[in-house]
Design a protein that fits this description.
The chain has 87 residues and is mainly alpha-helical. The chain has one domain. It is 82% helix and 0% strand. The protein is built from 5 helices and no strands. The protein has helices at 7-18, 20-37, 40-56, 61-70, 73-86.
Length: 87
């Protein structure tokens, strides 16, 4: 069954894709805060989410791996600042 989307649904979808980068940056900045506070297994789960957010922002895998190895929220916060300045 193939339903057509209403104009409202089409606009919501379009807005999401138009703002995808901003949404990913917002998510990433929230994860930086979480990373500062997390320890152990929770920290590992947050890093998985951070990796996914960075991939969506087209950050090179080598840089993602470097950030993960350093495990330093300040470095990640600096990257978020750089990305927001570009946007």
């Amino acid at each position: 069954m193939n339903q057509e989307r209403s104009p409202y649904q089409q606009r919501v979808i379009k807005d999401y894709y138009n703002n995808r980068e901003a949404i990913s940056l917002q998510t990433l900045s929230e994860l930086v805060t979480d990373l500062y506070l997390a320890e152990g297994k929770a920290r590992e789960r947050i890093w998985q989410r951070i990796e996914a957010a960075l991939e969506k922002l087209a950050i090179k895998p080598a840089r993602i791996e470097h950030l993960k190895q350093q495990d330093n929220p300040a470095l990640l916060a600096k990257l978020v600042e750089e990305l927001m300045a570009k946007g």
